[in-house]
Amino acid sequence: xxxxxxxxxxxxxxxxxxxxxxxxxxxxxxxxxxxxxxxxxxxxxxxxxxxxxxxxxxxxxxxxxxxxxxxxxxxxxxxxxxxxxxxxxxxxxxxxxxxxxxxxxxxxxxxxxxxxxxxxxxxxxxxxxxxxxxxxxxxxxxxxxxxxxxxxxxxxxxxxxxxxxxxxxxxxxxxxxxxxxxxxxxxxxxxxxxxxxxxxxxxxxxxxx
Length: 209
Hints:
Blueprint: H1 3-10, H2 19-33, H3 43-70, E1 183-184, E2 187-188
Antiparallel strand pairs: 1-2
Helix pairs in contact: 1-3, 2-3
């Protein structure tokens, strides 16, 4: 097996996958193996996750470097498919997505500040590092959504379903979480590792100090 084939295997892709497919595979695997999703006291899995992340990071960078080196060479006949550069993420600030079905979409790193997402279906959506400052997410379904490192300052999360959502490292300062679904009985079902909550209105109406 060649070095190039090995990198495709690491990302669980067939030889010759497009750059867009490489990036998507990286995001999917990074989501699955992110150490913050694994209990800190499980040292064996934490170590495995770190190695997996290192391997998929290396694979993506090597494939991207190969594509940049060879795609523009005149007369270069490669056995790989021609890579397609993904389109840059559009600015979605202030857009109206109320009641929209965005289930499972990849919205990572998008600017969605002050967007209207009230009542939207965002279950299983990948929203890593999304700017949602001031956005209206009232009554939205964020079941199992990935919101790692997202900016949710002053966001309206009233009566939002956050069961299973990962908000590790997210900035929730000043956000309104009144009535948001985050628990089953006494059990918290939202990941808030490293989240900033100062000034946030919690589901019971208390302001987090």
